[in-house]
Input
Amino acid sequence: MAQGRETTSPYSRLLRNQVPLLALVAVCVITAVLSDRFLSPVNLNNILLQACVMSVIAMGMTFVIISGGFDLSVGSTVALSGTVATWVMLETHWSVGVTAGIAAGALVGYINGLIVARLRVNPFITTLGSMVVVRGIVLLITDGRPIVGDEGLPDTFLELGRARLFGVHLLVWLPLVLFAVFGWLLHMTAYGKRIFATGGNRDAAFLAGIDVERMTASAYAWCGALAGVAGVMLAARLQSGQPTVGEFYELTAIAAVVLGGASLRGGDGQLYKSMIGVFIMVVLANSLNLLNVHSYWQRVAIGLVIIAAAAADQIKSRNT
Amino acid sequence: MVTKGNPLLAIESLSKRFGATQALDAVGFELDAGEVHTLVGENGAGKSTLIKILGGVCVRDAGDIRIDGRPVHFRGPREAQEAGIVVIPQEMQLVPAATVAENVTLGAWPQKRAFGFLPVIDRAAMRRRAADVLAQLDFHHDLDARVDALSFAERQLVAIARALSHEARVLVLDEPTASLEHREAERLFAVIAALKRRGVGIIYVSHRLDEVVALSDRCTVMRDGCVVEECRQGQFGTDHLIRLMTGRDLEELHRPHKTEFGPAHLDTGSDRGGFVVRRGEVMGLTGLLGSGTSAVLRRIFGAGSEPATVSLRGETRTFRRPADAIAAGVGLVPEERRLGLVMNFSVRDNIALPSLDRLSGSLRLDTAQIDRLAEELMESLDIRPRNPSLPVSQLSGGNQQKVIFARWLASHVDTLLLDEPTHGIDVGAKARIHHLMREFVENAGAILFASSDMLEVMNISDAVVAMRSGEIVARMARGGASYNEGALRAALAG
Output
């Protein structure tokens, strides 16, 4: 019955809307109480550094999930773009390397998008496949060894990973810029509205004149490109192109986006909340580290958080 | 019919509240064995809530439900079924990939032991049992056919057969004929008659009032969560029901027709056996289920299997994508509202969807302009509640349909293709949609609308094209005041 809906007070609605933020605050407070190292400048800087790479990946993931898709290949793409970038810059200039790395990521995303949009292959299977393919390509390029160069990577690139601005790593500032750009694109433009519509109801979007195939493909392309940016950032931080980085990043990113309240059925989500989700995941991992929880247990914990977030999404949808 | 002793089902002062809405307010309802008791009312009158409580999906706030005089209280659908109440919703719960026999006996498959110990399904017994039940319905079909290969009407019979195999004593049919063609509906009515003879009590919910009048032993009319009146067979007609349901007279709901039209507007190839819709004209496209009327609309709109070539305002066009059709001023209202609306979007965003480019500023969407537009259209189309931020999923069916209308008015189309525009919405909302259609063509537009409801087609359209299995079989203009219904029925049935 259309009218048969619970009317709630504005306070409880505000509270329900901000569950991710409250969860983040709770994790922070609990950790701060249990460990005096949590609030130390070194640790906070560490958290920001951890979060900056993941937040860029999660931005792309937010696009894909809102458009009604799913991308498991971002972890491998991070490794690909890092190795491609360092590999190319050893032969040419650092800026060419960075561009090539990001382009490689965008290409992976675009191909994912075309397969999902045109051939209508299930996104889970498509990106599971490309996750393995891309990881294989990375190992082929690098022969399984990190790329550092005989005389080291270009100094400018190494400096990018070390430099600080106002006491905070340069790498931490970049996501702020990207957040502004992609937040505008997703939430304020007609293009963003079309992405939401495509994820919310593909048939209805199509009949309203939206080119749903292009929307889907472009969401994956953004996701790949942003994973590419993240890969280059990570290479700068690690001062090398590492072929094995990025494992399980896709799961952390998906968990972050879902924790931020985006629906796995598509059509629902907010970029800033995904960022809160990223911080929940990063602070949680940091907290488990500080509390000396064994890293094997950390995996168990992260897996449980993912399932819990998806379950919460399901329960939420049942109640509305 | 005189009730002796306890009725099969007795409901007394049943109440249910959802938040601020009193969905049911002290409702009483009785059903005898072997009786058809119809339930009518506009959307939101409380019929669905009543059915949900009966089916154990919803828990009542207050009131009594008795079966054979014994009070019952269902905590879930299973308990309702065990008490003999089976609800057959519009979207039937069948397993598409399973066979007819498996579906009829679903959940109660007879078992045997292979090699004396291994429990397996006794397929022979299962088929026997299914054949038995289906024979009672006079429905003879290949028991091993997969259910997803069946027509809608056949699936419905399978669902009813399953209810029988569970020994249903009260069968609730929710809009059973909404997707049936005339002949299939007739067959359903025969099944209902057979069920009555077996002593099954039937609660029949429908928006098709002529059906209600013909079938009812008793009819309960609901409005705003209350029972307005209980009528007995032979003591009421459709006009009476409409007055009770809406609280208004029929004359207010109908308007006169035009007789003069503008030049040819949409020509689907009149030289190749197509038809022409003139400016200012409402053209009805009718046919039984599967006759291909939907496909005609979708192909014109560029959303079908292959695009159709048409002449629009004298210009030959072939739209390959909906976007092209929209750009040329054509809008489509699809058959199912869930195909037309993004349900978690607000009313405002659903209205703006095809016009986003026009509503974009240089850097961002012009939200002020979108708000203004949405408010204007909600006002002029009387979309309720008047809240553009409300998710469209929270609107009633009739109001949702108006949102799709508003969308096309917002994008300034002059050609509307409507597919079953009043399917599943109540009488009052139906009249308002018809009114909107008239208004649209009067403002120099043209409408081509498909409907399997022949009464609707004859009431609303200026000309009719009848289709059968993808072919046009008859064309009629409104002769004087009305069409020749007999000729139309004959053309459709072949």
Remarks:
- The mean pLDDT of chain B is 84.
- The two ends of chain B are 40 Å apart (CA to CA).
- Residues 182-197 of chain B form the longest helix (16 residues).
- The longest strand of chain B covers residues 21-31.
